[in-house]
Amino acid sequence: MEAATPQLKKPSLLRAVVIGRRPKLTLVRIVLLVALIFLTRQFAILPIRSVGPSMLPTYQDNGVNFVNRLAYFTREPQRGDVVAIRTSGISIMYMKRVIGLPGETVEFKQGRVFINGVPLSEPYVKYSSDWTLAPVKVDPDKYFVVGDNRSMPSIYHYFGETERQRIIGRVMLCKNIFASSGLSR
Amino acid sequence: MQKYIRLVGAVALIGLGVWLWSVLFPSPEKAIRSLLHTLARNVSFSMQESVISRGFKVEKAAGFFTASAEISLDLRGVERFEFASREEISQALMAVANNTSAVKVEFLDINVSLDPDGQTAKANLTGKWTVPGDRDLNAQEFNFFLRKESGTWLIYRIETVKTLSQIAPHAA
User: Fold this and answer.
1) Which end of chain A has a smaller Cβ tally under 10 Å, C or N?
2) Is the N-terminal amide bond of A57 cis, ω within 30° of 0?
3) A96 catalytic residue (yes or no)
4) How do residues B97-133 score in pLDDT, each as one tens digit?
5) Strand order of the sheet with strand B120-130?
6) Cβ A65 vs Cβ A174: under 8 Å
7) What's the gap in Å between the CA of B127 and the closest CA on chain A?
8) B122 vs A162, B22, B85, B129, B148, CA distance in Å?
């Protein structure tokens, strides 16, 4: 006695393209992909869009970049690092450069930065500045951050000491991508 | 197959029950978040809104504050503002409503911490305001302090949080 082999119905091309030949496997893949994206964004790499002129010309307005949230897992922020500083959360953050480390004295004299009385070399500052600000001794658990664009009056530029726990990571790319060209103002 | 359908149905029912419970009996944190989002909507104005509509919204927004509420605003590049009563806050909001074509206010990343007595709370949040035609990102971190009066949460103080402690210009 012979048993008839069941005829497997071949899925249509449209269905094969949309959900694959094995829908359960496709569903598992989708779930895994969403979980991976969520975990990456939450703990590793955070995409950001930078708005405003304070980091010109290094980072153009309205550009895309990424924050490496694992950058300070094994080491602390260093001078020259461009970091992301959270507010009450990560929906809006400040992107600034670290120029003063904990315990150092930061001073601005006619646009030049002095760290513990020694002038700091800042090749990333392209626009001239006339800022003169009183010396600030950075607290032990804080970092002194400032933007690269010092051409605006200092009262319009948001900078200063920030707590270490607010620094959530280091900006990954040295230039924004998909940025608008030129100064925003 | 029927077993799976029943399982999914049971999970959906439990989820619906939990959601209904949270809507009918919200936790203090959820109630405060909801209050703050409503406040943000009531201090946002669109171009199409009439003066009367704006007035109603301002009145509703002022109702979220205690009679002796204090607000201390220290925004970058702007003169410092302080208000010491609900009346002053209402007048300030009315001035904004009358002199602004449109503004959209949002409160983001609201972190609510309840004091042990359960009668006072603090909400740390980021306020963002968008004006049509303005390409700048306007945002500032705030602390809102609330207390429960007659079963209703009211704001009694707002202070600006200096995410970056800016130093003042110094004469050369």
Assistant:
1) N
2) yes
3) yes
4) 999 999 999 999 999 999 999 999 999 999 999 988 8
5) B81-83, B65-73, B152-160, B138-149, B120-130, B104-114
6) no
7) 10
8) 21, 21, 19, 21, 12
